[in-house]
């Protein structure tokens, strides 16, 4: 039986690229593996796949009876609906430890670094497997995306070291320029339905019994949202009602200004205000220096629900 390598429900570049890089590694060490994805490919991820000659992994949302090696998450809310009927053989992730449990032993690679692909690179080193140029390319891009070209507080010296090693393998002379190309693609939002924008990089969380949804859009100029910000806020309200959420947030990150405007829809906005010691104005607030949902939003918001 083949092992499926697969990331979270709304896949970002790290989720899809780690499924590809991990599947290749598993196959090289004699474990039959197939990369998969649970959702659509984002424009940035498609740019990466096209750049290095990959097709998108198989779209798969049902895993009952299958073996799965999870990448880039460990929260049950980001897993397939039938994950309890699947066998989780491994987890590779760089987020907080979630609430997935297993009935059998499994392989876990969980490190506090900026990107799952940084950890996958360590797995290649551990197993002494050579990384092909195209695999190195997608891994490199995933790390540049997740670390916001090293600007994110989640970025570690190891991420930077791994990027330099992967760039040499992939033949990428200027990885900073490649990173900016990716973020320009990410910043092209004109004509995209607002719901698609909200869900482009969206993750659900259970925060002490309260359902919370947090999306994030990273762009090189926040002004591109000026004409649609009111629509985004209105649709965020609809999303919260449709999914019976306590709070729904959309983080609009300006990577050049190194900060984020957060749109908030909540049954009780005081929870968000308390978490960040701010006052929302028309359902939004600017958080200077905030680039990371994982490190600068969730660790503050989740305790506020306790």
Describe the protein.
The mean pLDDT is 96. β7 and β8 form a beta hairpin. The strands form two sheets. This protein has a six-stranded parallel beta sheet with strand order 3-2-1-4-5-6. A five-stranded mixed beta sheet has the order 7-8-9-10-11. The protein folds into two domains: 182 residues, Alpha-Beta Complex (inorganic pyrophosphatase (n-terminal core)), CATH 3.90.1640.10; 111 residues, Roll (Diaminopimelate Epimerase, Chain A, domain 1). By secondary structure, the chain is an alpha/beta fold. The chain has eleven helices and eleven strands. α1 runs antiparallel to α4 and α2 runs antiparallel to α4. Its EC number is 3.6.1.1. InterPro entries: DDH_dom, DHH_sf, DHHA2, DHHA2_dom_sf. It catalyses: diphosphate + H2O = 2 phosphate + H(+).
Topology:
Elements: E1 3-6, H1 13-28, E2 33-37, H2 43-51, E3 58-59, E4 67-71, E5 87-93, E6 107-110, H3 116-127, H4 133-146, H5 157-170, H6 175-186, H7 194-199, E7 202-207, E8 210-219, H8 229-242, E9 247-254, E10 259-266, H9 270-276, E11 284-288, H10 293-296, H11 298-304
Parallel strand pairs: 1-2, 1-4, 2-3, 4-5, 5-6, 8-9
Antiparallel strand pairs: 7-8, 9-10, 10-11
Helix content: 25-40%
| Total count of helical runs of at least 4 residues | 11
Secondary-structure content class: alpha/beta
Examine the secondary-structure arrangement and name the CATH architecture of the largest domain: Alpha-Beta Complex
Trace the largest sheet across and list its strands. Answer: 3-2-1-4-5-6
Count of separate structural domains: 2
Distance between the termini: 42 Å
Q: N-to-C SSE series? A: EHEHEEEEHHHHHEEHEEHEHH
CATH class wording of the largest domain: Alpha Beta
Strand content: 15-25%
Task: Determine the CATH superfamily of the largest domain.
Answer: inorganic pyrophosphatase (n-terminal core)
Biggest sheet details:
6 strands, parallel
Q: What would the principal axes of the Cα set say about the shape?
A: globular
Radius of gyration, in angstroms, nearest whole number? 19 Å
What is the fold named in CATH at topology level of the largest domain?
inorganic pyrophosphatase (n-terminal core)
How many E-type strands?
Answer: 11
Mean pLDDT: 96
Low-confidence stretches: none
């Amino acid at each position: 039986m083949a092992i499926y390598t697969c990331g979270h429900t709304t896949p970002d570049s790290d989720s899809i690229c780690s499924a590809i890089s991990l599947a290749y590694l598993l196959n090289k060490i004699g474990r039959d593996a197939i990369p998969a994805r649970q959702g659509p490919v984002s424009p940035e991820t498609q740019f990466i796949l096209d750049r290095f000659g990959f097709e998108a992994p198989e779209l798969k949302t049902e895993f009952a009876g299958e073996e799965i090696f999870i990448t880039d998450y460990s929260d049950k809310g980001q897993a397939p609906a039938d994950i309890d009927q699947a066998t989780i053989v491994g987890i590779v992730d760089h987020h907080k430890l979630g609430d997935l449990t297993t009935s059998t032993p499994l392989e876990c690679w969980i490190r506090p670094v900026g990107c799952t692909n940084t950890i996958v690179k360590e797995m290649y080193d551990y197993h002494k497997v050579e990384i092909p140029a195209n695999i190195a390319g997608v891994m490199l891009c995933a790390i540049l995306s997740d670390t916001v070209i090293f600007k994110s507080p989640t970025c570690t010296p190891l991420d930077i070291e791994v990027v330099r090693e992967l760039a040499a393998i992939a033949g990428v002379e200027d990885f900073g320029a490649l990173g900016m190309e990716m973020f320009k693609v990410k910043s092209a939002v004109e004509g995209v339905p607002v719901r698609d924008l909200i869900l482009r990089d969206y993750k659900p969380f259970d925060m002490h019994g309260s359902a919370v949804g947090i999306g994030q859009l990273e762009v090189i100029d926040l002004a591109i949202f000026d004409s649609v910000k009111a629509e985004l806020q209105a649709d965020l309200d609809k999303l919260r009602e449709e999914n019976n959420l306590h709070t729904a947030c959309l983080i609009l990150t300006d990577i050049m200004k190194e900060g984020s405007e957060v749109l908030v829809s909540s049954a009780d906005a005081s929870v968000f205000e308390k978490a960040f010691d701010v006052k929302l104005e028309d359902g939004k607030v600017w958080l200077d220096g905030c680039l990371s949902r994982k490190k600068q939003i969730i660790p503050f918001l989740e305790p506020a629900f306790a």
